[in-house]
């Protein structure tokens, strides 16, 4: 119970101030008139003011509150290496026991785990949130158990009490890490670019000149080479395929280093083609020629070389060659010397007229078998005696003509296999359904060349009476395609509603140029934060489960669900960031979630330098856990709060008021009586004169 004198005015405070002014004025007037009782008048005014101010005694019933010491335990990833988990437990037990010996002191425990994403140790954020939940007047001290590697110092709060750091780690700790300091997000296929790597030693590392560096691309067997320590290494790299390339660099774990989590670096580089070179050879002018040209010219990444044969060799009309403005077809240069420069060759209604001898066609066949691509857009000439099929190139073409050509209307249909093939899958969704019957509601074509298809080829579209319309095949390492009609341009002109002609031809051309998104057999992963979408595309009606190998080597088997014909998917939550390998027995994929070496492992040697400014501002201390236990003492605010083997807290003396009683010191009527007596005394004194 404590007491305090307060004033509880009987009238508004403004009125008290006004009354005080009148009293001063009355006393001043009495002095000016030289009245003998002026001092009695002044005392009477003071008594009156005291009565109005009503001085009272306020008594509070206070309940003392205990002091609070915040203890923040860092359990982030860098605190789970070496012997730091045991040091955490040791330091926490030490602080708990020391605080138990302090009277009227409570401990608030804050446990800090890994932050979402790759933000590192967000210790200041956690401390700010914890302080906001407690009354600042009760905080007597803050103890942090950590390796000192804090990554959010910009969020440091204003501290109401000393901050102490119990530093985990050991003086002889050391670590080695691999750093990739220069890596592009994109690279051109076939061109060499340079990656800059560096192997750094931290802490009390042993002297080492070189270590073995393993390089693996897309999970392939690694290539190992010795590299120096502590120097930048420029590594030339050349990507082998378009799409995402995952490069993994690894150095072996050395005996005694803190962790191997920073011994691996994973780089994802998107391989792109510089320019896609396409050779389009039109055997004769026809309405569909412009469609092919517009399609290929609309893609800025395509370099198109287009020749139309306007004057075949057999045409003899007596016009002198010197008067012709036509360009001679550079057959030798295109089909012998520079054929390997092209990614795709398209023969559009081409017929054999003696322009290309059999030796050239034989060279084109070799070009396909060695990785090239040839697309045949056929008209009636494909079924005749001048068919390109009746050349050495015919050995790799996916359709043998029967010499029958149908000139009647039909609606192109997607076959069951085509519904699963990426070239034609979902094309029917780009047009409204047919008004009558099944199938898409696109326009008719009016010519179909009858062909016989080998068993290994894929018929993805059919025409009249289910005859093959679009046939795809792989030959050697190359690809060939046959469009058994020259009427696709009717869709482009919007005949009978048209159809997705540009999309079909675009997909077809990109499949032939081996674009990754159009591979019919593929396993790939789309990362969504810590979650991955696993996608398996196949021409089969079923697919096996996918085995996922975690960064630590453990495995998880997940089934896939068919979401559309030929496409199987699942969503899977990854338990941690790092490099994952996926395998379903036929296809493999590699994906890196986050970074293989997170921010937590960029610097792993414990240090108090990061928190030192905040600790020194409150005169706290940094105590290594490896040095032994520490004691806790009570110190006055502003005094040094650390010493040899001890840290200090500042008792706050906080309390909670349970009850308040206010009692007047003197009754108001007594002050009024005194004022009246003084006034009478002044009148009597002045009356004698």
Can you give a write-up of this model?
This protein is an alpha/beta fold. It is 19% helix and 33% strand. It has eleven helices and 37 strands. Helix 1 (13-32) runs antiparallel to helix 2 (38-53) and helix 2 runs antiparallel to helix 11 (668-687). The protein is elongated, with a radius of gyration of 45 Å. The mean pLDDT is 84.
Give the proportion of residues in helices: 10-25%
- Assembly type of the chains comes to single chain
Strand count: 37
Q: Strand-residue fraction?
A: 25-35%
Overall average residue pLDDT: 84
Overall SS class: alpha/beta
**In DSSP terms, counting alpha (H) and pi (I) runs of 4 or more, how many helices?**
11
Approximate shape: elongated
Largest beta-sheet characterization: 8 strands, mixed
Radius of gyration: 45 Å
Topology, pairings included?
Blueprint: E1 2-7, H1 13-32, H2 38-53, E2 55-64, E3 67-74, H3 84-100, E4 105-112, H4 123-132, E5 139-146, E6 163-167, E7 174-182, E8 186-188, E9 193-203, E10 210-217, E11 223-228, E12 232-237, E13 243-250, E14 264-272, E15 276-282, H5 289-297, E16 302-308, H6 331-337, E17 344-348, H7 358-369, E18 373-377, E19 400-406, E20 413-414, E21 448-452, E22 458-462, E23 468-475, E24 478-483, H8 489-492, H9 501-512, E25 522-528, E26 531-537, E27 546-549, E28 555-558, E29 561-564, E30 567-573, E31 578-583, E32 588-593, H10 612-617, E33 622-624, E34 631-634, E35 642-643, E36 646-649, E37 655-664, H11 668-687
Parallel strand pairs: 3-4, 3-5, 5-6, 6-33, 8-14, 15-16, 15-17, 17-18, 18-24, 34-36
Antiparallel strand pairs: 1-2, 2-37, 7-9, 9-12, 10-11, 10-13, 13-14, 19-21, 20-22, 22-23, 23-24, 25-26, 26-30, 27-28, 27-31, 29-30, 31-32, 35-36
Helix pairs in contact: 1-2, 2-11, 6-7
């Amino acid at each position: 119970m404590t007491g305090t004198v307060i004033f509880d005015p009987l009238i508004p405070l403004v009125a008290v101030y006004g009354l005080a002014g009148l009293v001063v004025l009355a006393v001043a007037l009495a002095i000016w008139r030289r009245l003998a009782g002026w001092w009695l008048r002044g005392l009477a005014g003071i008594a009156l003011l005291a009565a109005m101010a009503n001085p009272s005694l306020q008594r509070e019933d206070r309940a003392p509150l205990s002091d609070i010491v915040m203890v923040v335990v860092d359990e982030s990833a860098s605190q789970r290496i070496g012997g730091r988990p045991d040091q955490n437990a040791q330091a926490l037990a030490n602080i708990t026991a020391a605080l138990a010996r302090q009277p009227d002191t409570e401990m608030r425990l804050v446990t800090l785990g890994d932050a979402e994403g790759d933000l590192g140790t967000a210790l200041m954020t956690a401390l700010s949130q914890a302080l906001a939940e407690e009354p600042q007047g009760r905080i007597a001290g803050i103890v942090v158990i950590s390796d000192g590697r804090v990554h959010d110092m910009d969020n440091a709060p204003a501290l109401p009490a000393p901050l102490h750091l119990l530093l985990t780690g050991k003086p002889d700790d050391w670590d080695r890490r691999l750093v990739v300091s220069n890596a592009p997000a994109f690279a051109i296929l076939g061109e060499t670019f340079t990656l800059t790597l560096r192997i750094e030693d931290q802490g009390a590392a042993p002297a080492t000149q070189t270590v073995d560096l393993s390089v693996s691309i897309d999970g392939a067997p690694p290539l190992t080479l010795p590299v120096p320590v502590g120097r930048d290494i420029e590594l030339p790299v050349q990507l082998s395929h378009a799409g995402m390339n995952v490069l993994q660099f690894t150095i072996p774990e050395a005996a005694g280093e803190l962790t191997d989590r920073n011994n691996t670096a994973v780089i994802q580089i998107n391989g792109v083609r510089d320019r896609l070179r396409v050779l389009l050879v039109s055997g004769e002018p026809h309405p569909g020629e412009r469609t092919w040209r517009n399609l290929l010219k609309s893609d800025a990444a395509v370099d198109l070389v287009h020749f139309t044969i306007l004057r075949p060799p057999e045409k003899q009309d007596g016009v002198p060659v010197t008067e012709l403005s036509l360009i001679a077809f550079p057959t030798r240069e295109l089909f012998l010397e520079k054929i390997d420069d092209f990614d795709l060759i398209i023969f559009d209604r081409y017929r054999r007229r003696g322009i290309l001898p059999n030796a050239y066609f034989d060279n084109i066949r070799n070009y396909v078998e060695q990785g090239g691509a040839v697309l045949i857009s056929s008209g009636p000439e494909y079924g005749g005696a001048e068919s390109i099929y009746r050349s050495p190139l015919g050995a790799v073409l996916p359709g043998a003509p029967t010499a029958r050509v149908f000139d009647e209307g039909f609606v192109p249909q997607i076959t069951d296999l085509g519904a699963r093939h990426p070239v034609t899958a979902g094309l029917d969704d780009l047009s409204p359904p047919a008004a009558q019957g099944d199938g898409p509601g696109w326009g008719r074509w009016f010519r179909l060349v009858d062909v016989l298809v080998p068993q290994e080829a894929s018929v993805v579209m059919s025409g009249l009476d289910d005859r093959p319309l679009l046939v795809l095949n792989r030959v050697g390492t190359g690809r060939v395609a046959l469009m058994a009609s020259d009427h696709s341009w009717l869709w482009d002109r919007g005949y009978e509603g048209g159809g997705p002609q540009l999309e079909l031809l675009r997909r077809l051309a990109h499949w032939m140029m081996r674009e990754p998104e159009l591979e019919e057999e593929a396993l790939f992963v789309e990362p969504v934060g810590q979650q991955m979408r696993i996608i398996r595309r196949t021409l089969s009606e079923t697919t096996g489960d996918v085995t996922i190998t975690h960064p630590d080597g453990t495995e998880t088997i997940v089934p896939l669900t068919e979401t559309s014909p030929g496409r199987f998917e699942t969503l899977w939550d990854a338990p941690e960031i790092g490099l994952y390998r996926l395998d379903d027995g036929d296809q493999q994929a590699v994906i890196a979630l986050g970074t293989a070496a997170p921010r937590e492992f960029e610097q792993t040697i414990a240090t108090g330098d990061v928190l030192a400014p905040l600790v020194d501002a409150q005169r706290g201390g940094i105590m290594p856990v490896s040095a032994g236990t520490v004691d806790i003492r009570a110190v006055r605010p502003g005094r040094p709060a650390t010493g040899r083997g001890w840290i200090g807290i500042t008792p706050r003396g906080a309390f909670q008021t349970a009850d308040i009683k206010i009692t007047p010191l003197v009754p108001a009527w007594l002050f009024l009586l005194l004022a009246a007596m003084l006034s009478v005394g002044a009148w009597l004194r002045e009356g004698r004169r």
